[in-house]
Amino acid sequence: MSPEALREIARNMVETVPQASALGFKLLSIEPSRGSIMTPWREDLVGDPDTGVIAGGVITALLDHACGLAIISTSSDGVTPFSTATLDLRIDYMRAATPRADIIAVSHCYKLTRSIAFVRAHAYDVDPADPIATAQAAFVLKRGPVA
Amino acid sequence: MSEAAERLKIFLGRVPYVRFLGMRAELAGDEMTATLPFAPHLVGNTVMPALHGGALGAFMEMTALAQLSVTSPASRVHKTIDISIEYLRPGKAQFTYARADVRKVGRQFANVHVEAWQEARSKPVAFLRGHFLLREG
Domain B3-133 class? Predict the structure, then answer.
């Protein structure tokens, strides 16, 4: 598959899936087995009204979605796991996200078997070296040709 | 309204993200059941259609925080340290329910298990285990 075609699939996944679009996700990058997504801070997504810190749930959805993106981006031969379902997802919240800052999630699918993908991801806002949260996940693959 | 129900109502009303999800919760005595009505913006797979794993996880995390707002009242929202989610079945385009079981409350931390289901509680859709840092007062 051409990089352009893969990028189009990735963009659809990141920007048109209803939950992703409702949260304002934007595709930043895609490369083999890796991807990154940005989501903007929004008042209606705040989880701590005293500080304006965004809800953990937004980070959970962002990391989960970024993991799915890393799996899609493992495709190199036109056959890709076109559908994935999360089996388990572990998230550590290291610190509160900075209010009013965009959040970026970076993911890496480090192992793909016939039926399972193992993925790591982390989210940060201002400084890439100072993560907000990290994720470790396993996904079930439903393989098939790309539509 | 009981003091506990009052605390729950304040929590649900204060957190903007609760409104974004469309989540509700009710107390029966000291047992809280949270409800997530289906809404198109929660979908993660339009073909099935199925709820987004992140939205389901977020709902369960919020269920834990809502339960803690009742059992460990504080003026601020407690802070999530870590969560571990297990997905058992796809979340269908229908109502989802969740209950949180506070397994341990220490001076600083709480350990909470959450179970989410749809048609029948005997067929859970997902589980969440989490640790939460408790705010004082």
Answer: alpha beta
